[in-house]
From TrEMBL, chains A, B:
<keyword id="KW-0808">Transferase</keyword>
<protein>
    <submittedName>
        <fullName>CoA transferase</fullName>
    </submittedName>
</protein>
<dbReference type="InterPro" id="IPR050483">
    <property type="entry name" value="CoA-transferase_III_domain"/>
</dbReference>
<dbReference type="GO" id="GO:0016740">
    <property type="term" value="F:transferase activity"/>
</dbReference>
<dbReference type="InterPro" id="IPR023606">
    <property type="entry name" value="CoA-Trfase_III_dom_1_sf"/>
</dbReference>
<dbReference type="Pfam" id="PF02515">
    <property type="entry name" value="CoA_transf_3"/>
</dbReference>
<dbReference type="InterPro" id="IPR044855">
    <property type="entry name" value="CoA-Trfase_III_dom3_sf"/>
</dbReference>
<dbReference type="InterPro" id="IPR003673">
    <property type="entry name" value="CoA-Trfase_fam_III"/>
</dbReference>
Amino acid sequence: MSGPLAGLRVLDLSSVVVGPVCTGVLAEQGAEVIKLESPDGDLLRKLGGKGRTPGMAGKFLNFNRGKRSICLDLKHPRAKAVLARIAARCDILVTNIRPDAQKRLGVDAATMAEKLPRLIHCSIVGFRTDGPYAGKPAYDTVIQGVSGIAGCFEASTGEPRYVPMLVADHVCGLIAAQQIGFALYRREKTGRGESLEIPMFENMAAFVLQEHLGPMSFRPALGPPGDQRVLSPEARPLKTADGFIAVSANTDAQAHGFFRAIGRPELIEDPRFANVAARTAHTRDYFALRATALVGRTTAEWLELFTRHDVPAMPYNTIESLLTDPHLRATGMVREEEHPTEGATFAIGAPNILSGGMAPTLPAAQRLGAAGPDLLAEAGLSAQEITDLARDGALIQPEETT
Amino acid sequence: MSGPLAGLRVLDLSSVVVGPVCTGVLAEQGAEVIKLESPDGDLLRKLGGKGRTPGMAGKFLNFNRGKRSICLDLKHPRAKAVLARIAARCDILVTNIRPDAQKRLGVDAATMAEKLPRLIHCSIVGFRTDGPYAGKPAYDTVIQGVSGIAGCFEASTGEPRYVPMLVADHVCGLIAAQQIGFALYRREKTGRGESLEIPMFENMAAFVLQEHLGPMSFRPALGPPGDQRVLSPEARPLKTADGFIAVSANTDAQAHGFFRAIGRPELIEDPRFANVAARTAHTRDYFALRATALVGRTTAEWLELFTRHDVPAMPYNTIESLLTDPHLRATGMVREEEHPTEGATFAIGAPNILSGGMAPTLPAAQRLGAAGPDLLAEAGLSAQEITDLARDGALIQPEETT
């Protein structure tokens, strides 16, 4: 069995999160991903928190499974020719290098398209190059601030805040992989590659506007923006006697089940809560009631009661408790794995099931430059050429890196 | 010019957010999307906030651009045969109907594959069907609670909270479209369709774990989980004299530029802040310093200063202010549009640029059942058959809906 992208080769000129998420998805679907790194390596190797050996931070491991690392010093005059030879063998190039730096390296879409008309060139940028913010530097938090994500928190709790994840990077990396899939499909029809520009700001602004423009979609506005149910400051897991629980009770049947489960069936007749329209008009009261309703029993007791009353509810997980979640363990989404160079680790599995075949379990993330000599040999370089490149400092091998 | 999915037809048996996001992406890329609705219509038509006419809430409009609506009463004995005729013309079927209900309707993957071997069947579920949570009801907040998204907030501020967007629904809809693209590519190679299972829990748990497992990726753990910089409770837009600003100053050059811009160059030599390692060890101090550093000048003044000192910074946008953002207006991401039935509206554009051609601007979201008779005629039904179906209540036409 193999994944849908088996047989495709990806040149990954990206680092940190947005690009590596994209190429991680492509690897998960069976593509061969060649991760080209500078002598410093992907910044996440060091910035990704503690590791057992230098350059192998936990966060780096989890975003770079299934990729082959080659380390080239592109400042070296002979390294650019090597890059060109590798690129010539690839179907897809993914980069989050800024457009002007892409040009200096000769890996911009126009330059590549001349030599490689079948290449799909995916450039992830902060801002679309056809608007006034073109070329502005983009980092996840800057994008969260300018795209309205932090603004959703202000609309909810009164205080702008970032989602405590690199959500703009992560989502845009998923979107880049998505758009590459569509371009691959088109290439089968036309025989031609193309270039894709994936702008983080536009994608995240569209995300926020679709969610929350609401009554302001009309001119003049029919009311303030925002889905008030989603923006309620009480939209959070509910406190139980021994922790928290995630409950959703939005339809009438669910809300009525909730009232029965908490031993207050009289609320079914309460005009504030009797139906969806009433509860929407009294969101604050309804959420406030829910916030304190569950402190008298344990999470396990509530889960049983809610199951009995057909109220959707699940245990609340912390980051830690995901590791022992019975469903994630049973499906292999969280598994224990011996990393070839880093020892005992947890590995995160592939979430989606494709009946047409899935890629085998991906090998673990590599140390900087680990696949360099192999990749050059596969690209047709002789053993002598590879030795020379290493001696001249154009190719950096893992023994030399820290 | 046309999008990469031009010529493909999608049967959309989904509602609310996760499925409509998926089929919205497919429409944006040029596919014809047939949105089949029950007589009540997609729940979001009513639950999506205020609209000018019943069933046309703002939120519904923004998730359903470019789709053709047909309204069938599938409880009617003749409606199922009509559904089968429409499905037979489609390349892709997307549904978030629960697996057991799919079987009752005869639209589950196994049943469809027998008749339509080239169909790509995409079933979006809460939990993978090969684990103990299979079949549990899934709603966005329940998924946010069980997948650790709310847990990230606890790790940050001490209080579990949901992202004030339907982020699990929205992200999994994007992923569903991504996986469909890969299956389309494979179908070109093999000639065969396949079935996809897109589980929300697994996808969001993987999202959280990749971001934050960090030092707990190792066994035994090298430390508590979480990227502490991202989890800092001070990770938020900074207050200025007249609002907020989004600033990122993580590299040494950026941090030093920040210190110069705020008129405190002596901090460059401060051992707590001199380099990345020092600032990571003193994240709390560094973020606290930043939190109050900008209250003396306006956002516009800071943007100019930060540009001069090469510090990445952008204006902070609320949901409202996105509508007047100069870049979004210039790129057509936000534009004014006369909706054919709902009057003056704002429309949200397509973010990504594909050099191989993009779909024309999508038509606006339709009223319930608006394209029903046309779609049936295209499926080969005679005018008499369509009239009969309408008379018998199997086909609901827009005049009859509210």
